[in-house]
Amino acid sequence: MNSHKPDSASAVTADTAHTAEPGPEVSTTLHPSAEDRADALLACMTTNQKESLVRADFTPLKELGIPALTMVDASAGLRGEQNVTAFPVPVAQAATFDEELAGRLGEAIGEEGHAKGYNNLLGPTVDLARTWHFGRQAETLGEDPLLAGRLGAALTAGMQGRHVTATVKHFAAYTQEAGRLSTDTFVSERALYEIYQAPFRHVVAAVPYTSVMLAYPKINGTFATQSPPLLSDLKDGLGLRGYTVPDFWAGDDQIAAVRAGMDLAGLGPVGVKIPAGGLTDGSIPATRLDDAARRILVTLFATGLFDHPVPEPATDVSTAQHRALAVEAAASSTVLLTNRRGALPLPSTLTSLAVIGPADTDAFTGVSGSTYVDPGLWTTPLQAIRARANQEDVLVPQAQGSLGDLPLAVVPQTSLHTADGSPGLDGTYYAGPDTSGTPVLRRTDATVDFTVTPDEGLPEIWSATWTGTLTPAADGLHRFSLLPAGTAKLTIDGVTVVSGTRHCRRFFLGTYDYPLQGAIELTAGHPVTVELEYTNATADTHTCGLTLGWQPDSLIPAAVETARAADAAVVVVNRIAGEDMDHHQLDLPGDQNQLISAIAAANPRTIVILNTDGPVAMPWLDDVAAVLHTWYGGQGMGTALAQVLFGDTDPAGRLPVTFPAASSQGPGTAPASYPGTGGAVSYDEGIAVGYRYYDAEGQQPLFPFGHGLSYTSFAYGSLAVARGEHETGTTVSVTLTNTGSRQGTEVVQTYATLPEAAQAEPRRLVAFRKIPLKAGESTRLTFTVPDQDLTVWDSGAWVLTPGTYGFAVGSSSRNLTAEQAVQLG
Fold first, then answer.
1. Would you state the pLDDT for residue 28?
2. Is residue 80 exposed (0-12), middle (13-18) or buried (19+ Cβ within 10 Å)?
3. Are the C-beta atoms of 123 and 109 separated by less than 8 Å?
4. Which residues does the chain have with pLDDT short of 70?
């Protein structure tokens, strides 16, 4: 893929036709030379050498010239490395709705990976967001399989064009962290094919010589890594010609995995690695060993690993071009959710702009876990806003307002008292997962702050309660945080202030802690009762820990005074997210909702910046002037935010996930469907995922899938629908006009309604294209919708149901033009 924009994307001429092709799927060129070279090398290999290759033991293979795979997580840049470019997280990449940009991101990540000495990049992630609870939502490419598949294909092609092998992950139906290593996911065959496998189908169709990582959970009773039907779907159904690999720690039997169709199986569960000779003792057929080894070799030849060995790792691989791309991608993913009375872009008459909240070095640039990329020296939102404001002689006062989603300082012993008035809390410990039965230990604890078992007399699984009183020293809002490895609940004067579960306090790949937050109004000098409950039964194996933290002095009043004195106020808020955690509530953590409401009451031009991984509740929405969503925008997020605020660029992102109006909306709201019961979770919504669910259930979201405003306005003209020239697809044409006074960007989305006999969702996205237009400019867009994207899975086959198909074009799943129909089948 070229590193420059094609003319059709960079400039659209007024009143000229523009065809939006299906995307990377149109190119499925095979590599006969790679196949032939792999066959020749395989014929020279001994059985033991083939086994070494499958076990990922490359040392015995040096004499054959087989390059050892050097791996790095790479969904948003290179995890664990320094002097690399931190790009926006995958869900932000999805918010760009831009295949060409995704291709350039893939190229840049591939270039940096190769220069750092890696030839296998673990990415992109094309998982789907099923529920707002998912702690790894930031690592998905949104809720729609077509969007995820198209962008995933572009990312994969871009990476592999730089002589590295991509590993697309995680196949399939991986949508929650609760019980992720063992959960049994029950999903219908139709949903598995039409929704969860669909992104991989698009990727593999475009880039068949790649590798695919199998996910953690069981699928309908069998671990994904050990499921013959699932691996057959991937290879025989989707057409993968490359190799499969398990996620680290996935499954419980790697030999069974190889037998089922796993290829590079040596990355399996810690403690259950395949022993030498484990694949040559008759446990698997010789033909299966040959197939696994061949698939690995074919991929290495096809992606250039033999012919383009990695160099000595460079110290700094982040180029000026890549850093500019990071800013472009961050701006392209920024979504303007609402903009009342033209609050944005900021007016030229502005003289002062208050910046409130975690907007400096405490701003989150990425997601914790395997997708986190060190941003190095980067321009924070506060720094970027001040630099841009300085060009207009605008003053930028700053006030913290909130610490955001960070663990708070430990509640000191001096503020706590036991029942008899002693400093500290009364601790009661139990042997077992809940606080019942006869206690095994009673003692006074100065405070609650531990990361190892507090007493050697406790068993591996234990629980405890701490009780006493707390005496505040100030009036007003008090924040409390719990940082557990396990499940904890804090009750103050009978009110539950904080509760929830964290499997770990911080995932071992870092770099952020996973606190639970709450806030309550307290009165100075008035003691309140405190009860803290804890169990480590839900913590990662052999771990425990709990820290009771607080912030007794609210930062909101000072921030209100700063905002009141300014012409406008920008309030940055955040929420932590990452691997091995899920969200328990839709609300912003801690005191951030109270902060926004207080600032909005003091300044009518309050602009909220949501730096989160996905949707959050917005009880203050009607009180603020504008809301921008920046996701975790990588190292370019600060500069991009300043550009958007001051109108140097259009907010070009669109929502890749539906924002619910309440926590009860969307799939996964009942215990059986999230987090599951008895070790199993039921995807009882079937194919109704994301906007499909809202449409099917008649729910009104806060903001629909595909939503996003521009600083200009667009009008959709005449719509025409016709069969393609060879009747293998349907063409949809529409005229788009920029009716505003400035240049802007629109994401034109095409949705299809299938015949009633298909028993399909109310509508599905079948095409999209991002289009920049100058003021007054018009263009005629033509989309080609392949028949495959209109099929349903029925009785073991893809079926194009005969009947009437409706097509509509618009700016979101809920803002569409008049429908045009065509007969198919």
1. 40
2. middle
3. yes
4. 1-30, 268-272, 724-726
The single residue of 144, 184, 233, 247 carrying the catalytic annotation is 247
Of residues 509, 513, 517, the one with CA closest to residue 488: 517
Contact criterion met (CB below 8 Å) for 106 and 151: no
% helix, strand, coil for the chain, step of 5: 25, 25, 50
Residue ranges and CATH numbers for the domains of the chain are: 329-405+556-687 (3.40.50.1700), 409-551 (2.60.120.260), 714-824 (2.60.40.10)
- In sign, the C-alpha dihedral spanning 141, 147, 150, 151 is negative
Evaluated on CA atoms 309, 311, 313, 315, the torsion sign reads: negative
Within 13 A of 760's CA, how many CA atoms are on the CB side?
A: 28
pTM exceeds cut of 0.90: yes
CA-CA-CA-CA torsion sign (722, 725, 729, 731): negative
- Do 227 and 173 meet the contact criterion of CB atoms below 8 Å apart? no
Judge whether 493 counts as a catalytic residue.
no
DSSP assigned state of 138: G
The distance in angstroms from the start CA to the end CA of the chain is 35
Q: Which residues make Cβ contacts (< 8 Å) with residue 80, sequence separation at least 6? A: 72, 73, 374, 509
Distances (CA, A) of 791 to 171, 190, 435: 21, 11, 53
At 42, give phi and psi (nearest 5°).
Answer: -60, -35
Could you report the per-residue pLDDT of 753-789, keeping only the tens digit for each?
A: 999 999 999 999 999 999 999 999 999 999 999 999 9
Q: Given the structure tokens 């306090």, which residue do they identify?
A: 505
State yes or no: cis peptide before 496, omega within 30 of 0.
Answer: no
